[in-house]
Design a protein that fits this description.
about 550 residues; alpha/beta; 13-stranded mixed β-sheet; 17 helices; 25 strands; about 30% helix
């Protein structure tokens, strides 16, 4: 390794790029080999690994594998900041590929496998990806999009099948690569972008949020305190998640905090209450990144049917995307113990360091809300947050007045790749604009009221109403359409199409024809779950549909 240069004169504008004191995601596992090399870092539940050799990995072995990934990428001719697409769901291999990409100084671009084919193809082209890794079981779904984008994958994670034609299996890809720490050709810095996460907007096409190494470091550290609540030593953390952590920002909350404590991450392929209950029982999980309250509802229901499950090891359950009913709070404490801590967090891909609302700190609010008022509490210590009116003035001191939540934090995305206009809008006035409508309470805490720009959050995914409306308008039976999210115990919000029929159109009373039309053109989570026919819409003088009024009317009806 070349001797680093030393600058002992400059006191500003410095950039720590040498391995001694830099802050980059690729160094995390390697540093842990100096403290807990033989402790299990990653435990994959059945289905969350393609090769049995990766089912359970110590920190030493996890670091070796991620080193091999970095070497394999560099050996393929990739250079600093080249983009690598991951068309993958949860697996141990996918986590180590992400770390290896960071080690090599490249940019990880995970894509949601539920994206419609045309959007997926656009996304691959938009970021200029030059390399791709895919899951075997997902490839039939994504093949046409990759072909359209002109990018053939190079590596297959063999979950659900053998390697895709023209690719090598993950284990074979890394087999001959050295396990030693790779030395990138150029130095890395904490402000370098290591990941781009696609996040939905109000238009049909998503935006690529640029996340730096510092972003992920500080986001993960902001979760360490909450996730270790109730255990004696931080390294006792056994953090489980069965929610998406590859193409979702959840890796900053559901994986990296486990590493930063020297604990163990228990990873499931996808959510199943039975599988999660078994994992908690057998692996003695202490903390859950649970997602929406509905997932905890499903877990509790399963445990009621299966007395063999044992959740008594869980000391903390962290959730988001909706208020929790006080009845579920009582059920979970009956399963896990009276000392179970329940924490709601509120943030987004572009601002992952979240608000916190501890349910046991505010029992009166939990009881009075009855699961209908979404209290999100206060920002964590590394997040400055305000609520502003349309003219940008602060609403602090004006409880009950809704405005837009805005943030300042080192855990805010650096912008949207190749979209300067969207970036300028998002950072107008020196704050990051979340697009979420919130209001202050009398005590200074915050309540999430609604989503600006009518983004629907269903099952943990964001849905662009404009995109779905455009698809509906392609159907000859539709004169006009609006898409809104209505409260739903299962999905959080139910994607609902509100339609004015075209003159002479077939009745289609249950909307099945329109739903089938959408299912062929958008992702499953974007497809309306119901169709409501109306004679007209509430609208402005200029003809813009007032969706908040529409939601009120449908909610009342």
């Amino acid at each position: 390794m070349a001797e680093p240069g030393f600058d002992v004169e400059t006191l500003h504008g410095r950039r720590a790029t040498d391995p001694v004191n830099r802050m980059v995601v690729g160094d995390i596992l390697g540093r842990l080999t100096w403290s807990v090399p033989d402790k299990e870092a990653l435990v994959g539940r059945p289905g969350a690994y393609g090769d049995e050799a990766f089912a359970r990995l110590t920190y030493r072995r996890a670091d070796e594998v991620s080193n091999q990934v970095a070497h394999a990428l560099l050996a393929a001719g990739l250079r600093r900041s080249d983009r690598v697409v991951l068309y993958c769901e949860n697996s141990v291999e996918a986590v180590l590929i992400m770390i290896g990409i960071a080690k090599a100084g490249l940019v990880c671009v995970p894509v949601n496998p539920m994206l419609a084919s045309d959007v997926l193809s656009w996304a691959i082209e938009h970021v200029g990806a030059s390399y791709a890794v895919v899951d075997a079981e997902l490839w039939p779904l994504g093949r046409s999009a990759f072909e359209s984008a002109g990018l053939h994958p190079s590596v297959t994670v063999t979950v659900g099948g053998g390697p895709v034609d023209g690719t090598v299996p993950f284990s074979g890809w890394i087999r001959e690569q050295p396990r030693t720490q790779p030395e990138p050709e150029v130095p890395l810095h904490s402000d370098d972008i290591w990941m781009m996460l696609f996040t939905s907007g109000t238009t049909a096409l998503p935006k690529a949020a640029m996340c730096s190494h510092a972003y992920s470091y500080l986001a993960a550290f902001s979760y360490v305190g909450p996730l270790t609540r109730g255990i004696r030593h931080e390294s006792d953390l056994r953090l489980a998640t069965f929610l998406p952590i590859v193409y979702h920002c959840g890796h900053n909350a559901g994986v990296l905090p486990g590493f930063f404590t020297g604990g163990t991450v228990v990873l499931g392929r996808r959510f199943s209450p039975a599988d999660l209950a078994e994992a908690v029982t057998t692996e003695r999980v202490t903390a859950l990144w649970a997602g929406a309250p509905r997932f905890l509802r499903m877990l509790a229901d399963h445990c009621a049917r299966d007395p063999a499950t044992d959740l008594s090891s869980v000391t903390l359950a962290m959730f988001s995307w909706g208020a929790m009913h006080p009845g579920l709070v009582d059920e979970l404490r009956g399963l896990c113990g009276d000392d179970l801590a329940l924490l709601e967090v509120f943030g987004q891909s572009e601002a992952m360091s979240c608000f916190r609302f501890w349910l046991d700190e505010h029992p009166a609010k939990v009881a009075s809300s009855a699961g209908l008022v979404n209290h999100v509490g206060v920002p964590n210590p590394v997040l400055a947050a305000d609520i502003v009116a349309e003219d940008g003035t602060s609403l602090r001191g004006r409880p009950g007045v809704a405005g837009e939540a805005v943030y300042r934090s080192p855990v805010v995305a650096s912008g949207y790749f190749r979209d300067e206009e969207a970036t300028r809008q998002a950072f107008a006035g020196g704050w990051f604009h979340s697009g979420d409508s919130c209001m202050y309470e009398e005590d200074g805490q915050q309540i999430l009221v609604d989503r600006y720009k009518d983004i629907i959050k269903t099952g943990g995914e964001n849905v662009s109403s404009v995109r779905v409306e455009a698809v509906l308008m392609q159907h000859p039976a539709v004169e006009r359409a609006a898409v809104v999210g209505l409260p739903d115990d299962h999905w959080g919000e139910r994607v609902t199409a509100v339609v004015v029929r075209a003159e002479g159109a077939d009745p289609d009373p249950d909307g099945s024809a329109l739903i089938a039309h959408c299912r062929e053109r958008v992702a499953g989570y974007e497809t309306p779950k119901a169709v409501v026919y109306v004679d007209g819409f509430p609208e402005t003088v200029g003809g813009k549909i007032l969706k908040y009024r529409l939601r009120e009317q449908l909610g009342d009806g």
